[in-house]
Amino acid sequence: MEIERKYLIDHPPAGYDSHPSRAIEQAYLCTEPVVRVRKEDDSYYLTYKGKGLMAREEYNLPLTREAYLHLLSKADGNVLTKRRYLIPLEGTELTVELDVFSGKFQGLVLAEVEFPDQASADAFLPPAWFGREVTFTGEYQNSRLSRL
Prior knowledge:
Layout: E1 2-8, E2 21-31, E3 34-40, E4 43-49, E5 55-56, E6 58-62, H1 65-72, E7 76-88, E8 95-102, E9 109-114, H2 118-123, H3 142-145
């Protein structure tokens, strides 16, 4: 189960790019249900995500590079590229996943925070540098961006 909240970021915090990061490329084979392939640095995955906005099922299966490239060629829509920075959230055990997009969505920056349970997600108070919450609108779901 994945439980996360997502925010649009207008101004990332100073020094965000000094945190550990990963290069991500992903594309969608299907958006209902969500079936995605992802390259994360030198690792490859096939992911299934169930329905939902804040909480939903998620299963990741490892792929070989060859399988990833084969499935990538069958994907519909945009291939999304971004760099994900992992920023510890001060005073908590949570981590902000700050996605800085490149390619077609250059300039888009989103923050996601994953939670251990629904109560933690409901009680979360975002830091001041977070912008508008977009968790429940679905407008910035990566599967939706892939179709724009």
